[in-house]
Amino acid sequence: xxxxxxxxxxxxxxxxxxxxxxxxxxxxxxxxxxxxxxxxxxxxxxxxxxxxxxxxxxxxxxxxxxxxxxxxxxxxxxxxxxxxxxxxxxxxxxxxxxxxxxxxxxxxxxxxxxxxxxxxxxxxxxxxxxxxxxxxxxxxxxxxxxxxxxxxxxxxxxxxxxxxxxxxxxxxxxxxxxxxxxxxxxxxxxxxxxxxxxxx
Length: 200
Description:
Blueprint: H1 3-17, H2 23-30, H3 34-46, E1 50-54, E2 60-64, H4 66-103, E3 108-112, H5 116-126, E4 132-136, E5 144-145, E6 148-151, E7 163-166, H6 172-181, E8 189-191, H7 195-198
Parallel strand pairs: 3-4, 3-7, 4-6, 7-8
Antiparallel strand pairs: 1-2, 5-6
């Protein structure tokens, strides 16, 4: 889904929930620049998806037209379809990389960083009866993911692992550098999925 369509969908949804919000409030809520919100509202109004209703004290409220409601539905379906497609692609890329590691003899995996990637990796490794798994994420230590208790990175020195799989959504290069500083040998560190390159 193109980013401009995502922005349009988010703005229409926000206005549909509360049309009395001003542009500055919408800008903050949607993490868009004020100029972008102003421009989008103008485009939506010209496209017949949005009506402006004058209010007291030179204020306006926004109201979705029938076309606006239909556009939300269309964009939401597009977003859902795109998300499903991306999930399938992500899963296949991860499955392939895990298969390569297992075929190379790796059996003891630390999954580093809680994210949707982490859950996919954990579930795919669960299908392999011959591997061991640990999940490390300081911010979520003590919680569970796919039946595994999440530990802290201070526990790494007590784990006999073959590989550390970076699965957090943050910059993989930063996570890689953090692991090196924590004493993890570089040859044991793998980025299992990088959205900046694998989504292209």
